[in-house]
Write a structure and sequence with these properties.
Layout lengths: L2 H78 L3 H4 L4 H28 L2 H6 L1 H18 L12 H10 L14 H23 L8 H19 L6
């Protein structure tokens, strides 16, 4: 074969191979770029969900922290600091204040939780890393109130009862999900609007041995964890 022709053929084959290799690399690069773009888009969506869930929690953080801390302190006082003496006091006024203020702290806690659940996508709130620990504690506290596997039915409050009380704790004139009636309004309304929902619970809080119940012990432990988690997640120093 003519050397010139051979060289030309070799060059042509080389060119074809180079073109094929270049096209193959371009296709690989396009696939890699598409995969990278998809990963970046997924990461951006995940970050957006996490930010949105955390923003909701931050909005409710201080009201939730205050309600949980108030309830935790009352349960601690009943369990270890002889507050049950006031719940069983012969001084009717003091006993009534002790009892109704305890019911108020419970109602306020349920009202804030219900407001939070109404405001957020619960599935998202339960799965995003920034809020998952708080959501898990809230769920476990709710189940601890509602379960008959702990102390039978003593101090048991079903989820529907928790929600009903939460509704009654909202001021009628306010559309703010964070708004809760004050103690003076609660005290005034208690005999008519609220007592039917609290009646069994109120009786059980006045019985001997309430300070030793397993339900109160578990609730105190969980509320303590919730308060610490909420404090640790504050976006600023207080």
């Amino acid at each position: 074969m003519n050397p010139a022709i051979a060289v030309a053929l070799i060059a042509a084959v080389g060119g074809l191979l180079t073109s094929a290799w270049t096209l193959h690399r371009q296709r690989d690069s396009a696939r890699e770029l598409a995969l990278l773009q998809n990963e970046l888009a997924q990461a951006a969506r995940t970050e957006e969900r996490q930010i949105a869930a955390k923003e909701h929690l931050d909005r409710y953080r201080e009201p939730l922290l205050a309600a949980a801390d108030d309830l935790r302190h009352r349960i601690a006082n009943i369990r270890g600091r002889s507050f049950s003496v006031y719940l069983q006091s012969s001084d009717e006024r003091r006993r009534k204040l002790a009892l109704i203020s305890t019911m108020y702290r419970l109602g306020k806690y349920w009202a804030v939780i219900d407001g939070l659940y109404r405001a957020v996508n619960i599935l998202r709130f339960n799965t995003e890393s920034e809020t998952k620990r708080v959501a898990g504690l809230l769920d476990e506290i709710g189940r601890t109130f509602a379960s008959d596997a702990i102390d039978g039915s003593r101090l048991m409050v079903w989820r529907e009862e928790q929600r009903a009380i939460a509704e009654l704790m909202r001021p009628k004139e306010s559309a703010d999900g964070l708004a809760v009636i004050g103690f003076a309004a609660f005290f005034e309304d208690y005999p008519t609007r609220l007592a039917p929902w609290f009646s069994d619970l109120a009786v059980e809080f006045q019985l001997d041995g309430v300070e030793d119940t397993e339900r109160l012990k578990k609730l105190h432990d969980l509320l303590d964890q919730l308060v610490k988690q909420l404090e640790a997640g504050r976006p600023y120093a207080v």
